[in-house]
Design goal:
single chain, alpha+beta, globular
């Protein structure tokens, strides 16, 4: 009976596939929504992160894509920031994949292509977000642990 229950527990354990969490983090702030939006814009300017779209009336900021290399792969990362009752920091990413073009074709074809990614592996997400945590804390935004 014990052996049967052990196999049952192991079967249940292996049937659940771990999945990377969504690429969003929440931060709290003091003050009004307008002040927090302006503080976030100042923070991005100070860090040298170019802003593509800024809508202070709705509390929305979208950054230009930033290219970063992690573990021999090139990622393009954009930040989508919504300032409401709390700050929602979304990560939008694409991964550049190098593929071998056809050697027979005259035109060649592309050697690299981009793959949009809804979820990055958790280890890579942690590496990206950890660079923001400390500096956002100094700017007055505190991470909300979920």
């Amino acid at each position: 009976m014990r052996l049967y229950s052990l196999f049952l527990i192991l079967a249940v354990q292996f049937s659940f596939c771990p999945e990377s969490p969504r690429m969003v983090r929440y931060f709290s702030y003091d003050g009004s929504q307008v002040e927090a939006t302006q503080n976030m814009k100042k923070y991005l300017d100070r860090e040298g992160i170019p802003i593509k779209h800024f809508a202070p009336e709705s509390g929305y900021i979208l950054t230009e894509p930033l290219e970063t290399k992690i573990n021999f792969a090139t990622y393009e990362i954009q930040l989508s920031i919504h300032v409401e009752d709390r700050v929602k920091l979304y990560l939008i990413s694409s991964k550049e994949i190098y593929s071998r073009g056809s050697e027979i074709s005259i035109g060649g074809g592309a050697f690299n292509r981009k793959q949009s990614m809804d979820k990055l592996p958790y280890k890579i997400q942690r590496k990206i977000y950890s660079s923001f945590y400390r500096s956002l804390k100094r700017a007055g935004f505190r991470l909300i642990e979920s």
